[in-house]
Amino acid sequence: MEKFSKLKELIAGVEADADKFYNSGNGAAGTRVRKAMQDLKGLAQEIRSEVTDKKNAK
Predict the structure, then answer these.
(1) Which GO molecular function annotations are given, in alphabetical order (predicted)?
(2) What whole-number distance in Å separates Cα of residue 21 and Cα of residue 25?
(3) What residues make up the domain containing 31?
(4) Does any domain span residue 22?
(5) CB 31: neighbour CB atoms within 10 A?
(6) pLDDT (tens digit, 9 = 90+) per residue, 4-50?
(7) How far is Cα 4 from Cα 18, in angstroms, rounded to an integer?
């Protein structure tokens, strides 16, 4: 559950940059959004693996 909380924090943290990129055309904010999305992808994969391992351990 700790990683899931971290995932939510990461999404909340990138929201301002996403707004700057999509609504203001700020290119640097777009770069930060792309990096955050890559981090989210990795964290989501870790969560998927944990869920699968826990499910299969039963």
Answers:
(1) DNA binding; structural constituent of chromatin
(2) 5
(3) 2-51
(4) yes
(5) 12
(6) 999 999 999 999 999 999 999 999 999 999 999 999 999 999 999 99
(7) 21
Say if 47 falls within a structural domain.
yes
| Amino acid at residue number 57 | A
DSSP 7-58: HHHHHHHHHHHHHHHHHH--HHHHHHHHHHHHHHHHHHHHHHHHHHHHHHT-
Q: Which of 51, 35, 46, 34 is nearest to 7 (CA)?
A: 46
Let me know if residue 56 belongs to a domain.
no
Please give the tally of structural domains in the chain.
1
